Amino acid sequence: MSAPRAGFDLAIDFGTSFTTTATLAGGRAEVLEIDGSKYVPSLVCLDEDGNVLVGRDAVNGAAMAPDRTERVPKRALVAHEQVLLGSSTVATVDLVAAVLARVGDEASRRFSGRSPSRVVLTHPARWQPGGLELRRLTEAAERAGLGEPDLVAEPVAAAQHYVRSGSGDQTVPDGGVIGVYDFGGGTFDTAVLRRRGDGFALAGSPGGDAALGGEDLDAAFMEILAEHAEALDADAWTALWEAEGRIRERDRTLLRRDVTQAKEALSRLPAVDLWVPGYDDELRVTRREYERAVEPLLARSVAELRDTIARAGTTPDALVDVYLTGSTSRTPRISALLADLLGHPPGMREDPKAVVALGALATVPGSVSATQHVRLPPRTPPRTQPPAEPTPPLTPSGLKVPPVPADGTEKVRRPDSGPASRPAPPPPPPSPSVVDEIAREIAAIAEAAGVADLVGTVAPTVRGGSTGEATRRPLVSAAEGVGTAIGTRHTPFPGLPPEIALQVLREGRGELGALGRCLTRLDEVRERLATL
User: Fold this and answer.
1) What are the C-alpha distances in Å from 18 to residues 103, 184, 325, 367?
2) Residue 448 neighbours by CB distance under 10 Å
3) How confident is the model at residue 6 (pLDDT cuts 50, 70, 90)?
4) How far apart are the C-alpha atoms of 59 and 35, rounded to whole Å?
5) What is the pLDDT, as a whole number, of residue 2?
6) What residue spans carry the region label Disordered (predicted)?
């Protein structure tokens, strides 16, 4: 028997809402506590000095500076190169690196300053080797000082933990298939896996819904709370969400936190009471009314699992089991719906949040379960595209939260003083030959990208009295329509909004072959239209 390796193994499940870290040393695996919790909020906040705050510090900072907060850096990592936090532009890779560095430093401190012998990062099954997402995640790990990590798909890690912590490896025989239902705070993922020796491999394409997560259940809970609050005092509820100032912003932030905790408590309790700022009495929400409100969302998730099973070429009754993971999976109604699908209750541990990080530690380097290492290309300067705005916080429908200025004061832009001048005359319209040439190019791009059936034709004409803007407008609309169609048909994973999918495709165009060339041609058309 070989001697155990010195040091420790480190696994990080960087989630949309929470990050979980596990360590393995001396044959003992455990979940790492940071700031008194096993689950570190993934949100990050930029302080006034430009430092990226993580964990409890970020939560406290977010209450006072929502404009400097990115609530879901994992989602931002996929969609954007940079985000605008306050007045500062920050690379999304650096935001993720800050979270990874914090948990990595805490793990090293736990082991007297030693560095880990092995680092494992988990990722959604849809993130494939060579793709933009894994390249960015790997770069974030390197910037965090973690070196080159092993990469393991989240459902594979979850399956490893279930079989090794259950009744033994024979629970899932070699060649047997299992399902994984991962309902997290910000996203929902499904997968069917086939047992192969000491690991698991995907059977069929993974599924899920990037636009479905625990936050959607939070929103449903919030709407119930709004109904009760408005029945007592509608003006107080409106004042809570529309009033300006840091005190009210803190009230809203704390209420959002209480809503998430109350939603999770309904997994154990028949009803919960919440204190809402502006009301003397607590407001009660029952499990029955909550489950009624979220039933369509949960049914949607089960339907997605059913589709994933079908794509794997099998049926629900042929699965050995379906394993639950993710914070939202503890919702009792989910187990009931899945039991109807499977004919028996699904497998779930007491702590579904931690199964991915713990299972990642059980994967064997180089086995069928491990994703290959990602080699980073030479670093290139970021594109000049404008940074994205941070993800906005949860707000009840129909109410708009006013922005909070960084210094608490409102700034008014005044026009430059000077002599009045007449507006410049509108530019002349382009020639008919130029219009026809651009229209043909847009149609050719749609055809080459395989989306001609999703867009209409464009044939603008130049008439007497037409302005340049009037002629340019239908061409711009046509180019945008082709972009939307490409994002819809060629989305990297189901459920991603077309505009975000298009951005992800653009940033990875170098590896998309003919589709990448179509995206470059489309951008050239847009640049040409901007100069007309």
Assistant:
1) 12, 9, 13, 27
2) 14
3) low
4) 11
5) 43
6) 369-434
State the SS3 of 291-353: HHHHHHHHHHHHHHHHHHHHHCCCCHHHCCCEEEECHHHHCHHHHHHHHHHHCCCCECCCCCC
Which residue in 429, 415, 498, 486 sits closest to 454, CA to CA? 486
- Determine the pLDDT at residue 210: 76
**3-state DSSP of 77-123:** HHHCCEEEECCEEEEHHHHHHHHHHHHHHHHHHHCCCCCCCEEEEEE
> What digits encode the pLDDT tens for the residues 347-387?
876 678 889 999 999 887 765 555 555 544 445 555 556 78
Structure tokens at 227: 């109904």
Please give the DSSP secondary-structure letter assigned to residue 185. S
Mean pLDDT of the chain: 82
Q: Which residues pair with 21 in a beta bridge?
A: 12
CB 506 within 8 A of CB 519: yes
* Angle, CA of 501, 182 and 161, to the nearest 5°: 130
pLDDT above 60 (res 399): yes
Mean pLDDT within 225-236:
94
Q: Token digits for 237?
A: 């509820």
Indicate the SS3 state at residue 459: coil
CA 528/CA 532 separation, integer angstroms: 7
Tell me the C-alpha distance between 46 and 80, whole Å.
Answer: 17
How many angstroms separate the CA atoms of 524 and 69, rounded? 34
CA angle 333, 337, 340 (to 5 degrees): 140
